[in-house]
Amino acid sequence: MTVRINKFDGWGNDFLVLDLADLPPSGGVDPATGATPDWSALARTWCDRSTGVGADGLLLSERIDDVNARMKLYNSDGSSAEMSGNGARCFAHALFRADDARGERTYRLHTDAGERAVTVGAQSSDSAMASVDMGELTRIDAPEGWDKIGAHPDRPVMHVSVGNPHTVVGVEDVAVVDILSLGRMIPQVNLEVIAPGPEMNAITMRVHERGAGITQACGTGACASAWAAVWWGLVPQATERCEVLVHMPGGDALVTLHAPSRGRVQLTGPTTFVGMFEVAL
C-alpha cells in the first residue's frame, strides 16, 4: 500500500505531514497480517535523508472540525514528542493549504502538550506566515546526567519546558561549541547554546534536538532561548512585552515574550510547502 504525504519547511526545520483521512479505506491495516501501521518505524523510514524523503519529523493529522485538529509528532529517530513550534506552524500551514484558504485563518491544534492556537496567512501559493501561541514556559529540573556536561558554575544555564524539555546555555561563541557531543550526553532534552547579538534585541542560537540531533532550527528552542536571554539580561527588556530576534542556521525567528498574555510566548515566521511524495506503508 502507498500513501501521499506532504513536506513543509520552517527555517530549514522540515516535517512530513500525513492526513490520516488520506489512508486507504482499511486504515492502513495490512490485509494479509492484520497489522496496523507502525508509525514509529515509518517515521524512521520516511524521514531518513539517504533512503527516504528526508525530514526532522513526521506529523500525523486528524481533523476534528474546520478549526480543530489533532497533531501527533514522531521524531526522525521514531521517538514521539509532545510538541514542536516549527512542527505546529508547518502543520497549520498544511491545514490552511488543504482548505484552500484565503486571507488569514486560526487553527487550534490538540497536541500531547495541550492546545496550541496557530494563525496562518498566505504569502503565495506555497508560502505562508504562521504564528503560534506556545503557551506558558515553566522551570524544570536539570536533566539526568547534566553534571557530566562539565559546564562552568558561573555560566548561565536554564532548564525550562515549552511543552517539551529544554536546557539553554549561554556561551561566548556558539560556533565553537561541540553541541553534537554535548547533546548526546543529555539526549532526553533539547539543548540550545546562545550568545547575544549581533543586534541589540537579538541572540544567536544553535540546537541539538531530542530525537533528531543537530537541526537547522527549533521553534520551541527559540522560545526557550529568548526567554532565558531576557532573564539573564543578554537582551534589553524595555517593556514587559518584548520581541527577540533569534538567529539560527536555518533562518531568523521572531519570538514575542508575554504575548498574547503575561507568561506566554509567541513564535512567528515563514513556512514553505516543499512538495508531495508517495511513500509505502
Could you please describe the fold and organization of this structure?
It is a single chain. This protein has an eight-stranded mixed barrel. The protein is built from four helices and 17 strands. It is 16% helix and 43% strand.
Q: What percent strand?
A: 35-45%
Silhouette = globular
Query: What would CATH call the class of the largest domain?
Result: Alpha Beta
Please provide the ordered H/E string of secondary-structure elements: EEHEEEHEEEEEEHEEEHEEE
Main β-sheet description: 8 strands, mixed, barrel
Overall domain count: 2
Q: Oligomeric form of this entry?
A: single chain
CATH topology of the largest domain: Diaminopimelate Epimerase, Chain A, domain 1
Give the number of DSSP strands: 17
CATH superfamily of the largest domain: Diaminopimelate Epimerase, Chain A, domain 1
Residue share in helix: 10-25%
Q: How many distinct helices?
A: 4
**Poorly predicted parts:** none
Helix/strand/pairing category: alpha+beta
Radius of gyration: 19 Å
Strand order of the largest sheet: 1-2-3-4-6-7-8-17
Give the end-to-end Cα distance, rounded to a whole number of Å. 6 Å
CATH second-level architecture of the largest domain: Roll
Average pLDDT level: 94
